[in-house]
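Hi R.,

As promised, here are both runs. First protein below:
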Amino acid sequence: MMLIKFSLSFMVVFSAVISYLLAPDVVAYDWSRIMLLFLGGMLVTGSANAVNQVVEKDTDALMKRTAKRPVASGRMSTTEGWTFAILALIAGLAILADFSWLAAGLALLSWFMYAYMYTPLKKVSAISVLVGAVPGALPCLIGWAAGQDELTIGGWVLFGIQFFWQFPHFWAIAWIAHKDYSNAGFKLMPSVEGPSRYSAIQSVVYSLVLIPVGTLPYLTGMSGMASFWIVLAANLFMLTQCVRLYREMEVKAARRVMFSSYIYLPVVLLALLADKL
């Protein structure tokens, strides 16, 4: 459970499953297929998180929030971690291929970008957050491809929402854990000075971008007017929390942004699904 970072993986796969259900070709709930997609997604995502922990075991050991992870603490060997990662990846891709080869291909791309691009870049530059936002949003396209077997506009709209959502979400986490991250050599904040007004204004900018992006499900005919107002309210709420961070410049304000972002994604996705046209 710790190796796959279950709570993080669950959020990622949740967005893939909702995107699958939002695809136009999925007109009825087949719970066996839904659970199969969830399992395939959890295996691939868990594999990527396992690789991340094996590769970063030394830096994880330096940080209080990650020192108890199984590989970093020595409770699991790197060989065991790699074995799980490889087997989980193969099994997950096989399951996703049963939905569509496009979904499986996108899942493999997401796995590679997370494990071999985002992970090493974290010690190089804050550009890692931009790179990591791509595999972070790809589950929406994976789910859409699993239900539609092609990447039409709806899938890209969902990708856009999840892509821009990640910046205030992740920078709030990086703000809170800045000391830990800095001690481990990670460069994750948009400012070299770490938690600064420049970093806070970046969160405001990306939460502002989410407002017009959040109108696209309605404008493209994916969902109706009810979800339009719910998504707009969620976006304004996120913007308010980011503005408060800019004004207050305190960890407790960053924590409000973080928890708001955790609430934002399920509210928006479930609203779109409930109001699907």
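And here is the second one, sequence first, then its structure tokens:
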Amino acid sequence: MGTARPGWWLLAALSWRWCGAAGPVLRGGTWEVLEGVEVVWEAPANRKQPLGLLVLFHRGGRSALSWWDASATCEKCTGMPEEKAIVAAALARGFAAVAVGCHDGKSSRWEPEDGPFVAHGLVALTGARRWKGVPLFALGVGCGAGFAATILPKALPPSMAVRGVHLQLMTDQAGLSTSSVTKAFKGGQGVIGAGWHGGAKATLAAPPAPNVVICHMPRDDSVARAARSIKHAWAQTGATVLEQRAVPLPLTDAYFSDSVSGLSRAESAQIVAMLRVGGYLSGGGFLLVDPQRSAWRSVISAPIGRRGGFELGILRAIARDSLAPFKSPIAEELNRAYALSEVSAEFVNATLSFFLKGLKDKKAP
């Protein structure tokens, strides 16, 4: 649905960050093209050598630029709240974060052909930064999870074996058995991840790493069933598998200001109030309908053209947000609250602790 936008003069007057705004604050990612692959990376400022390297694979509709805000070192970055929170948590725990882009630069969907390019790019980056020997971990969402689970481990050289993988929103719609997965891929079906285009002989029969986290949203029954099947099968091979469930969240007055940079608590409360008046929230503040299929944008945009204080508060908020699918921070946070199909940073600290524990357990006698 199209959304009317305020004039350029009003956008210029209102596009500034208000006091009290929250959301993760990062120093800024560094954008580079290495071996033909787009990478954006940031290392913890207080460590000479990171504890680990967390490689990030975006979902369909997003890119390597989605994990950081625009800065002098990444002018085209378009940070999204959940992605930025994942990076912030990784840096705080001593990990370096590296987002990788699809090599052709035209598609947001991961393909098996991206494997060698990603491997070459990571080898070049770790060599240039002197990160050789730093344990490698991966986090993928949707088609990025399918790539991290099936293509990445085989593409990397033995010296860069993946030590742990966090997979969000990954589904095996054809079933987990080796025969069914291989048959589905040979038949050209996209069986792994939202929008995964597939490639012959890719399989989920073996775990991608000794330590695996499977994060899903139980509201999506197909993904939840696949997560349970994958967890059981991989645990049988000796892998340590942690399951995480991202459930729906209530929209409190501070819901958006707690996650969206540049949004004040007052503006957040006004957005929530508009959604409540529009009939989109339950008595407990939970979304009643899937925001990816509802007309919430028309409710948020309704005050345009008015001049009351309440309406101007809403206008200030949407003046800084396109409200476009896959690109809007407000839209992403609504999708996360509904908990059907969206990136979630909720369990990233638990994931990183799980990864570090796996490293310590391996070193123990």
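A quick note on the second one: The beta strands are 30-34, 37-42, 52-57, 95-100, 136-141, 162-168, 211-216, 240-245. Let me know what you think.

Best,
J.
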